[in-house]
Amino acid sequence: MDSIYLIIVIILLGLATLDLIVGVSNDAVNFLNSSIGSKVAPLWVIFTVASLGVLIGTLFSSGMMEVARSGVFYPEKFTFPAIMTLFLAVMLTDVILLDLFNTFGLPTSTTVSLVFELLGAAVAVALFTLWTSHSGEQLGDYINSGKALAIISGIFISIAVAFVVGSIVMYLSRLIFSFNYGKTFKFLGAIWSGLALTAITYFAIFKGLKGSVLLSTEILGYLESNMNTALLYTFTGWTILMAILQHLFRVKILKIIVLAGTAALAMAFAGNDLVNFIGVFMAGFDSFQIAREVATAGGNIDLLYMGKLSEPVVANMGWLLGAGLIMVLALWFSKKSRTVTETEVNLARKGEGIERFSSSPLSRSMVRGSLTISKSIDKFTPSPIRRFIENRFEPVALENRASFDLIRASVNLTIAALLISLGTSLKLPLSTTYVTFMVAMGTSLADRSWGRESAVYRINGVLTVVAGWLMTALIAFSASMLIGLFLMWGGKIAIAAMILLVGFILFKSGRLHTKRKSREEKQQQVLSSEMQLVTSCNEDVRLVLDKTLHIYKNMLDGLKDENRKTVKKAMNEAYDLYERFKDKRTYEVVPTIERMQMNALDLEQDYVQLVDYSYEITKSLNAISEATFRYIDNNHTAFTKEQIDDLKTIYKVLSEAFNSYYQMDKEGDYTHFADVTTMRETIFELYSKLNKRQIKRVKANESTTRSSILFLNLVNESKIITLQSSNLMKSHRNFKENYAKAGPDVNANTLIKEITLN
């Protein structure tokens, strides 16, 4: 038996481990978003509960293993070498695809990925076999199209079902409890909790036990025949227990529901989705063992057809527990799982704030249509009913700045767990991502979380995610088919090349994710104290002035020497600076003003102006550095010595004024602030002179058209930089003086001087 097959099994094991990590990073959103969004408990408690659910759920998943072995193709039509290549193509594609979605924080479906990857790889291997064997068979003889279509249709139908059921249940729940649910929940809380926990118990435990390695057929048969009695006892027991905890021990039983729902959903996830991560490896491992037995008996494994994979399978408990442990570790330590979770929580949160997604024509049209329909319904709704509904949906402040309350979190978890566990019990590989995401979006809509200020952005976010799901199917099928064809054609060399490619992609995506998270963390920065405000403003002013001179000098040096590398570096620095202050103006200013507890209108106005002037300076820097780089990159005619000298004159005036302000700022003495005004007036005069000089050069044919355009652009943007720099330094001086007047408990001048010097 060729050692390449043992190597493929080892590669499959390694890829399955990676798949568990990247898969959990994507699917953690499914069972964490409700607990994290409602802030039901500290993160370590939420993660512990979810981890226990995952470990238990892994033992319920053996019934789903058959999907990877014979769900979308007929294994008896594939030889052992072909089936091993098929499984390898699936795992390579899955790791790459899921990691890319995680990097960009988009929740996708591991189930859809697996099904379409199996389908694509099976088509590739079948086509290659037909092309090389000339057997006269057709592609339809290899693909189980009927079962594949049933699986795919079930996955996509679950989207609509989850959204509708989530919306209806949430709307009714809010009518019953309202947002100020304390009084109503006092009387109905135990019954509500009993129903929720009974539903979770029934679907996550009783239904989940089907196909499990934990219980025998006799016990399962007894449960089936006495299910109604068991449910009645379960409901009664949960209701009594919740009533005791609520009224005697003053326990917030909604937290119990949410944590129990988190555990149940984690169980459902592990039971339904574990096959997506290790099912292909286990199928490959079983194929290897079957082939080894045949090879030991002297058979030809190249002609061995894998019909045995169609037989029922019982998964090895050791493999299941090992996979569960890897999933738990990934859950605790994966940074990408937090990124995907943040996407869903952000779309489902209550209230306004910074929106991650922009609007689109479709989302705007949908909002306009919804408003029109809503107004039409209001006209025919009796006033008492309308007032009752409005009172039930009157919002209240949430504790701990949570994204939504515990009522919605309990509905999210209960409905999602019901649907996913039902799918598992029926052996349908529902997409846990699709179900939980659409339930969360349905409850958000019914809960009126999408107001006039956020609806177009939230709807476009949902549309973006759903479009990503559709792209998942197309990309998974296409990529898996191409990789399958490449492996069948290239053999061992192709396998080595694909392994190297996977490593490279994982490395690059990790760096890209780190960069994205760094920027998002900066966007989310909100100043909450006077000390932070003063420190931030001083650092920002110093940064802008320093970087302006540095970038301007590098740009001039690059123009003079026609040094593309220097100009490109200046352009990149200018772009980073521009993005920093664009994000600062967009994401920091208003939230900071809202959070700051201070009565100093002048100080806050100066802060707004400092950010605005900094943004305008960096925008001009970004514009001229880009234009300069394009000029050098296109190898246009070098600037003349006269043009360079003219631009250096501007730099010299800026440098002298900035250094003068540094000294004034350091000493806290602004008696020579007139130097800043002089700088502005000098450069304004230079602006006219330099333009006239360039016009003369144009008329004398001493300058090309493109160099003239760039020169005039540089001079004009330099004038803007000068004006905004003057405004920036003036506002910074006023800011420090106003803070000195407003400082309540400290020697403001001493504090400012210390901050400036540091």
How much beta, percentage-wise? under 5%
Give the overall form: globular
* Cα end-to-end separation: 70 Å
The count of strands amounts to: 0
Q: Largest sheet, described in full? A: none
Number of helices: 24
Taking Cα atoms only, what radius of gyration do you get, to the nearest Å? 32 Å
Mean pLDDT: 84
Element order: H for helix, E for strand? HHHHHHHHHHHHHHHHHHHHHHHH
Which range best describes the helical content: under 10%, 10-25%, 25-40%, 40-55%, 55-70% or over 70%? over 70%
Which secondary-structure class do the elements indicate?
mainly alpha
Instruction: Tally the structural domains.
Output: 2
Low-confidence stretches: 744-758
Observed structural traits:
Methane Monooxygenase Hydroxylase, Chain G, domain 1, globular, 24 helices, mainly alpha, disordered C terminus, single chain, 758 residues
